Amino acid sequence: MPAYNCEAYIGDALRSILAQTYLKWEVIIVDDCSQDSTSDVVRRYAEVDNRIKYYRLHENSGAAKARNKGIEMAVGQYIAFLDSDDVWSTYKLEKQINFMRENQYTFTCTSYDKIDENGVKLNREIIAKVSSDYDGLLKTCPGNSTVIYDAVKIGKFFIPNIRKRNDYVMWLSVIKRANMLYGLQETLASHRVRSGSISSKKIDLVSYHWKVYREIEKLSFFKSCFLVFYWVIFTVLKLR
User: Which stretches make up the Glycosyltransferase 2-like domain (predicted)?
Assistant: First the structure.
């Protein structure tokens, strides 16, 4: 869980982890030099449950480096992600890990819904696709707080230091080794829509998508144009 100036929301995220019916977890919070009381909030929870680990970066470095540090520190078989302002349903880990074990999947996501800054549901649900290969993932990115991959079977993955869409770059790396992303079509997480968040202004992400397709994935000019156009139509204009 990368964290930066999230004192208002990280308590909700941590409570959703503490409420999990699946008990064999650790949560690693990597604080990107928050200037608010994020550290105080986390430490209060860490004092009552030693499965909560807190690490503070030496300097503000961005979400990519914070994610990479958390992945480096993780020791479990499964690596899951939860943004500091999102929340999980109580059965999220139990249901998703059972889904992976029963089907021998190494890379999965779930459906999720949207909540506002006060935690009120916005009546918008994003249904996970049953399965996606690399080409499918180029068109549709899973919800970051829904993804789990099996680090024992396919290894750990680290991401380049880009400010936005760094989670997306990770999933594109994972699927090259896992071959498929499988979706559990049950809403087990909530994404918080915040006016000041990095992802709130979707049109600003167009240049980052272009960077992912052309510079990182090395796709052709025409395929990159098509994918950016597809993303704008179906995501920015909210046609799906």
Answer: 1-127
Backbone angles phi and psi of 24, in degrees to 5: -90, 75
| Mean pLDDT value across residues 25-32 | 96
Specify the fold of 2-200.
Spore Coat Polysaccharide Biosynthesis Protein SpsA; Chain A (3.90.550)
pLDDT of 200 reads 47
CA 111 to chain centre: 13
Q: pLDDT tens digits for 120-132?
A: 999 999 999 999 9
221 sits in which H/E element: helix 221-231
Cα–Cα dist 73/68, whole Å:
9
pTM reported for the whole predicted model: 0.91
In the chain, domain spans:
2-200, 201-240
**Beta-bridge partner residues of 2:** 30
CB of 95 within 8 A of CB of 181?
A: no
Contact (CB, 8 A) for 160 and 216: yes
Tokens read off for 23:
């008990």
Q: CA 26 to CA 49: how far, in whole Å?
A: 10
Q: Is 187 exposed, middle or buried (0-12, 13-18, 19+ CB in 10 A)?
A: middle
Phi, psi of 197 (to 5 degrees): -80, 160
Residue 142 has pLDDT above 60, yes or no: yes
